[in-house]
User: Which sequence fits this backbone?
């Protein structure tokens, strides 16, 4: 590697290291406030006696099944990262892929639009000898394939349950359409970055210059140069991945299983509180709809919007008096546990750099 490339790699790593501590603290405070607000709301609406009664009658077999779905989700997420990493870095260990995945789970949930996960994962990978540009390219490729799998899986399930879906949420279809379009747009932009560097540069350069004029970016030339270098590297990785069709297929299939595991958590919560009458494949498209709605909520973990969306969408499906506790359980699975467990992986270990 020449001196300039080495210097650029160090600069990229330093940029990744720089996190806005005030914003992180604010996000944590917001998360705690949302949790406290949800708990207070639940106690005020349902009353202590009803909450105690419901908790006593919870079927904890289904609660454990929900945890099983969560662990399967994390396993699949780790595999979709490990497979391309292993191709590029044969000595990559699965334990490190799990660690990087869980750190991503943490920062995805504490930053708006899940924007902090990939930079922190890339930084963690650089600590075990991976180039920052390689790491970001692999993470971008993982994002493309998992998003395609998510949107494809969601569309297939919704189509098979279209009548039930349309009847239950006829007033909210525009939100689902907006969510699908937002995900498709993200996929298209990242794919374009992989196959047409000039087009992406043509779009991003004026945006960077505009941000510089309004004092959001201090050194536009450096930003453009770093972005150009990253896009070039990503373009090369995209071509490499395009030649690894079996790897792409593996990631796609595992991502579909990951989506199914995520959607299944809601069904486990549904059954845990003694609900019946709506089958698994009817719960799945409703949860898919909620996930699409959550993608356009800017708060960390789609806070407030996720809870409100769950209440609106599932209130008529869950038994009376169980919906608020169901929301709390669902958020523990999909929001608070990833934060707690992900935080544990930030604890320094005595393992060597090669891990």
Assistant:
């Amino acid at each position: 590697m020449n001196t300039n490339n080495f210097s650029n790699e160090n600069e990229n790593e330093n940029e990744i290291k720089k996190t806005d501590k005030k914003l992180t603290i604010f996000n944590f405070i917001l998360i705690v406030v949302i949790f406290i607000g949800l708990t207070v709301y639940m106690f005020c609406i349902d009353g202590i006696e009803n909450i105690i009664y419901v908790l006593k009658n919870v079927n904890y077999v289904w609660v454990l099944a929900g945890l099983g779905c969560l662990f399967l989700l994390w396993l699949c997420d780790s595999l979709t990262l490990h497979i391309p990493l292993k191709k590029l870095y044969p000595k990559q260990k699965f334990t490190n892929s799990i660690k990087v995945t869980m750190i991503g789970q943490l920062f995805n949930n504490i930053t708006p639009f899940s924007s902090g996960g990939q930079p922190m994962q890339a930084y963690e990978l650089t600590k075990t000898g991976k180039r920052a540009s390689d790491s970001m390219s692999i993470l971008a490729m993982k994002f493309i394939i998992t998003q395609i799998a998510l949107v494809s899986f969601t569309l297939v399930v919704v189509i098979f349950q279209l009548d039930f879906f349309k009847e239950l949420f006829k007033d909210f279809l525009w939100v689902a359409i907006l969510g699908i379009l937002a995900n498709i747009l993200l996929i298209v932009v990242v794919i374009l970055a992989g196959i047409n560097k000039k087009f992406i540069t043509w779009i991003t350069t004026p945006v960077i210059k505009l941000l510089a004029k309004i004092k959001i970016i201090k050194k536009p030339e450096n930003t453009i140069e770093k972005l150009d270098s990253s896009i070039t590297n990503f373009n090369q990785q995209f071509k490499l991945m395009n030649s690894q069709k079996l790897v792409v297929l593996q990631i796609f299939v595992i991502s579909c299983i990951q989506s199914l595991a995520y959607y299944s958590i809601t069904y486990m919560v549904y059954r845990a509180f003694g609900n019946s009458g709506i089958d698994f494949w009817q719960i799945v498209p409703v949860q898919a709809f909620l996930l699409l709605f959550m993608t356009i909520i800017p708060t960390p973990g789609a806070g407030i919007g996720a809870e409100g969306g769950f209440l609106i969408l599932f209130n008529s499906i869950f038994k009376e008096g169980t919906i608020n506790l169901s929301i709390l359980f669902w958020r523990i699975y999909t929001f608070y546990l990833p934060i707690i467990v992900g935080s544990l992986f930030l604890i320094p270990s005595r393992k060597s750099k090669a891990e």
Observations:
- Residues 3-344 form one domain.
- Residues 20 and 26 are 10 Å apart (CA to CA).
- Confidence is low (pLDDT under 50) at residues 1-9, 15-19.
